[in-house]
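Journal club prep — side note

Before the paper discussion, L.F. wants everyone to see what a predicted structure for a comparable chain looks like in token form. Sequence:
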Amino acid sequence: MLMVWKPHVTVAAVIERNGRFLLVEETTDNGLMFNQPAGHLEPGEDLIAAVMREVREETAWHFEPEFVVAVQLWRRNPDSPSFLRFCFTGSVHSHEPQQKLDDDIIATHWLSRDDIAARTGRLRSPLVLQTVDDYSKGQRHPLSLLHSFLDIA
């Protein structure tokens, strides 16, 4: 029987303000780790709606995507699942500090690139720092690159 390979589709947001990047500290199977606000694409959801939802659920900030920073295919090792990660950048507004965050989120942090690099062993994946560096180098692609054709015959 032929198995169909299906990578997990995820979204992430690189959010920078005054030289600091918004990261979440989250509980994982490997302990407390740092990540960009990120998560899985849900059924019936397009990529833009997914990243806006994930940022709001994990940070209590409202996120307005402006550009695609990167599309990344990542796997930790041959026995691990693969992830197809769409990484956006944009701005946040309307913070709601009273909002309950996702259960696995311990805290949010605004960290410099050097602060992030100093936590390399506690990053959820190598893509966290890679994407900050891509963003810092000016890597931006228009959102018009993305098209959704949901529920269209």
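L.F.'s comment for the group: The first helix runs from residue 47 to 59. Keep this in mind when we get to the figures.
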